[in-house]
Design brief:
Layout (H helix, E strand, L loop, with lengths): L13 H15 L2 H18 L2 H18 L2 H18 L2 H18 L2 H13 L3
Length: 126
């Protein structure tokens, strides 16, 4: 490790100073500290950015994830998510989200839509 005196050849790089500072911080703080600063950072970010910002970073994150994972990955996380949701929620939860989904669908679709899906459902039994 380089010493930090006034000789340019012995100064620490910014990267090394950052690494050492991060290591010192992690030794001196616990999980609650990181949760608190994460909460504050999230609140500050939400005050400074709009919906478009979050859509853009979500899109980029989704694309990066899709480039690095296959369908098996998505099946696995979907199954884990479904199991976790089932463990944490009861019948009333599922009735409520079903009701909300039905309302949202009815606001976005007309009678022709329902006739079409009804026909498709009826034909699937053949």
């Amino acid at each position: 490790m380089a010493k930090n005196n006034n000789n340019n050849n012995d100064k620490m790089s910014r990267e090394e100073r950052g690494r050492m500072g991060g290591e010192a911080t992690s030794r001196n703080h616990d999980k609650d500290f990181y949760q608190e600063i994460g909460q504050k950072g999230g609140e500050a970010t939400s005050e400074n950015h709009d919906k478009d910002f979050y859509q853009e970073i979500g899109q980029k994150g989704g694309e990066a994830t899709a480039e690095n994972h296959d369908s098996e990955f998505y099946q696995e996380i979907g199954q884990k998510g479904g199991e976790a949701t089932a463990e944490n929620h009861d019948k009333d939860f599922y009735q409520e989200i079903g009701r909300k989904g039905g309302e949202a669908t009815s606001e976005n679709h007309d009678r022709d839509f329902y006739e079409e899906i009804g026909r498709k459902g009826g034909n699937s039994n053949d």
